[in-house]
Amino acid sequence: MATVMQKIKDIEDEMARTQKNKATAHHLGLLKAKLAKLRRELLEPSAKGGGGAGQGFDVTKSGDARVGLVGFPSVGKSTLLNKLTGTFSECYLEASRLTKVPLQCLNCLQKRQFSKAVASYEFTTLTCIPGVIVYKGAKIQLLDLPGIIEGAKDGKGRGRQGYQNTDDIEVTYECSQYVILWLPSVNDSFSIAVISTARTCNCILIVLDAIKPITHKRLIEKELEGFGIRLNKEPPNLTFRKKDKGGINFTSTVANTHLDLDTVKAICSEYRMHNADITLRYDATADDLIDVIEGSRIYMPCIYVVNKIDQITLEELEILDKLPHYCPVSAHLEWNLDGLLDKVWEYLNLTRIYTKPKGMNPDYEDPVILSSKKRTVEDFCERIHKDMLKQFKYALVWGSSAKHKPQRVGKEHELEDEDVVQIIKKV
């Protein structure tokens, strides 16, 4: 791990020293390709001696969608989870070597018990805490992920871990309000596990402190980008097809300002690909081409939740309200939590389908939830039961997707939100 981290640092230093112009585009493209490969090794280290890939948090996926709370420690993620789901997130010691802890927690620590109250002092959650929100008939799993730190994408954060075992905690100073604890360092890739779990979510909520939102926003975006998570972006509109022979064939339907044939060949050679057809349909960058070659990039919606707005002025709040993908809240005072849920529903883009048994009224209480990308009648049947398609004859649909009510459709028919569906089976 240390060798990979050193290589990453060397490449980043070289990129920082290199001027960006047409003459250096070829060299920078090669460095970016090397950097992407090294960061992939951090996230999925090669198995040696029977070892597996890097570990995330073992949280069973449940409900219709998964939303992750990501942010730095002490920005209000646990309070937000508590207010939205009623779930209490466990508090653990922040893993600096020397930590100030309120005196009332000392007895619990010595008894190997941990406070489960969400605290205002700088504790950090150790494990991933799940909660469930039932909203518009959909069950949305909300994950309170532990606070990440700057440099997690490069393997930093080893040792930034809470403690479930207090055997080695030593009290070094005590007063009427708090105690000073000496904490031994540990050696786990903690921040990597946080972002690995974030990759499994359908939507990310980046929780920011209202006092310094822009600073934290840029740092967290950099960490997530380093792990292949692309926020509020669409996959690159370019085609990459490997072939057995013929060399690199590079074509573009638009004028290109970032990529040329030499840069494309340099990036492909880094991945040991010497024969491929590449077609660009927009002015793509070297990063876009690398993302397509890597093939492991995650494109997901993201909402920037600016917490603690009760600590800023009305003028500052009006400025934040104009920024895209932002939602200002105060978790402690429960301000604008309904607005946050509305925005989460909008970004998840889920489709509610109501079932109608033959001869009965539609069931509007328990809809079948489909994603916007998989909302055909076939997807609806598979969501109910995997064997339903074997008995499927046709479906009757009422709603905005039907030309007339009811419309008889096949399994390829695409459904719209709040459609009513009745399945007719074979006799």
From TrEMBL:
InterPro entries registered for this protein in UniProt: DRG (IPR045001), G_OBG (IPR031167), GTP-bd (IPR006073), GTP-binding_2 (IPR031662), GTP1-OBG_CS (IPR006074), TGS (IPR004095)
Name this protein carries in UniProt: Uncharacterized protein
Keyword Nucleotide-binding recorded: yes
An MF annotation (GO) of this entry: GTPase activity
Residue stretches making up the TGS domain: 349-425
Organism: Populus tomentosa
Pfam family, one: MMR_HSR1
Keyword vocabulary terms for this entry: GTP-binding, Nucleotide-binding
Segments forming domain OBG-type G: 65-349
